[in-house]
Every structure is written in structure tokens, then in C-alpha cells.
């Protein structure tokens, strides 16, 4: 009886003792649009550290929701947790799906909350800019590249696009096909 208890306990611990892991699930394109009050093609003109966190400043080139062409905005440009893919590079053009940044961000890597939105609002180069975060843990950023005169939006790998969209060998969709889905 003791041997059976021992093996039962050992099996339970083996199954329950596995490390937990977090992972961002894929999302339908239509759901990404619904959860993003701001959708725009932007050009990042600066990426700076504010309160120790990378923040991008960008100009809206083409607006689809929540902003107007020519507006300027700021967004988080680094991961807030392990599976977050938020990032941005200076001078990149991207189709971004943005969500409001909460008043207080909790950083897995810092162990304490950061009042980043207030810090961004007080930073000289960012005054009067609204701060956002990239939707769906950073997956709402499609970098735009131009090849042979065609703008292509890179698939970040976690968005389920409609089957009607055709992508190239490098997992890029024509930007005009993606943005046509927004109308």
C-alpha cells in the first residue's frame, strides 16, 4: 500500500510540479481591430528612455481610427512581460493597433509599478502626446517595408488574417490589402 501511495504521490507531483508558462494566444484580425481604439500607419521619429523604459514618439501618416493624419503620439517600445513583443525602432514605418496605456504599469522585470504615463506626459519632447501601448501584447505592430514600389506589412505571427489575404514568402501582406479590411 505504501508503494502505491508513493507512486501516486510522485506522479501527482510530476504532473502538478511542472513550471507554468505564459503565452500570448493568436487573435483574429477582426478582434484586434475591435480591441484597438487607435489604428494608424505611423513613422517613428524617436525612441527614448523615460523612467528607464523605452518609449517611441511617432507621427501619424495615415489614420484609420482614433487619431488624425499629422497627429503625434507615444507608445511603449519594450516588453512589459515575458511574452510581450512590444518594440519600435527609430525611422520605422508601421501599421499599429494601439490601446490606452494604464495609469500604472506593472513590470515583470522591475518588480514595482511605474507611473509611466505621467512620466511621458512630463518629458519635454513628449509633452501633450497621448501615451499608448501596442495592442495584444505587442502583436499589433506590423512593420511596413517597400519592395518594388509596393508597401508590405510584415505579419508578426500572432494575427489570424482572413484566408483571402495572400502573403509573400517572407510573411508579408500588401499594406493596401490589410488596410482595406479596416473600412
Could you describe the 3D structure shown?
With 183 residues, the protein is of the alpha+beta class. The chain has a domain at 36-145: OB fold (Dihydrolipoamide Acetyltransferase, E2P). Helices cover 19% and strands 37% of the residues. It has a five-stranded mixed barrel. The longest helix has 15 residues, at 2-16. It starts with a helix and ends with a helix. The mean pLDDT is 85.
CATH architecture of the domain at 36-145: Beta Barrel
Uncertain runs are none
* Count of DSSP strands: 12
Q: What is the strand arrangement across the widest sheet?
A: 2-3-4-8-5
Distance linking N and C termini: 68 Å
**What is the count of helical runs?**
4
Helix-strand category: alpha+beta
Compact description:
The protein is α+β, with helices and mostly antiparallel strands and 183 residues long. The protein contains 4 helices and 12 strands; from the N terminus they run αβαββββββαβββββα.
Task: Write a concise keyword list for the protein shown above.
single chain; 183 residues; alpha+beta; OB fold (Dihydrolipoamide Acetyltransferase, E2P); 5-stranded mixed β-barrel; 4 helices; 19% helix; globular
Please render the helix and strand layout as text:
Elements: H1 2-16, E1 27-28, H2 29-34, E2 38-50, E3 53-65, E4 72-76, E5 93-100, E6 105-106, E7 113-114, H3 116-122, E8 130-134, E9 141-147, E10 150-154, E11 159-160, E12 172-174, H4 175-180
Parallel strand pairs: 1-11, 4-8
Antiparallel strand pairs: 2-3, 2-5, 3-4, 5-8, 5-9, 6-7, 9-10, 10-12
Amino acid at each position: 500500500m505504501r508503494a502505491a501511495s508513493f507512486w501516486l504521490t510522485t506522479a501527482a507531483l510530476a504532473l502538478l510540479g511542472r513550471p507554468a508558462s505564459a503565452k500570448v494566444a493568436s487573435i483574429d484580425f477582426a478582434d484586434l481591430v475591435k480591441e484597438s481604439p487607435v489604428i494608424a500607419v505611423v513613422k517613428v521619429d524617436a525612441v527614448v528612455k523615460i523612467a528607464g523604459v523605452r518609449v517611441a514618439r511617432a507621427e501619424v501618416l495615415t489614420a484609420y481610427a482614433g487619431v488624425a493624419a499629422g497627429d503625434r503620439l507615444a507608445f511603449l517600445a519594450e516588453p512589459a512581460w515575458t511574452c510581450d513583443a512590444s518594440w519600435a525602432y527609430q525611422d520605422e514605418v508601421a501599421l499599429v493597433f494601439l490601446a490606452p496605456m494604464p495609469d500604472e504599469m506593472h513590470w515583470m522585470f522591475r518588480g514595482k509599478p511605474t507611473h509611466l504615463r505621467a512620466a511621458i506626459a512630463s518629458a519635454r519632447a513628449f509633452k501633450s502626446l497621448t501615451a499608448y501601448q501596442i495592442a495584444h501584447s505587442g502583436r499589433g505592430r506590423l512593420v511596413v517595408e517597400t519592395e518594388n514600389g509596393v508597401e508590405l506589412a510584415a505579419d508578426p505571427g500572432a494575427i489570424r488574417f482572413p484566408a483571402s489575404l495572400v502573403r509573400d514568402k517572407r510573411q508579408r501582406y500588401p499594406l493596401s490589402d490589410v488596410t482595406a479590411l479596416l473600412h
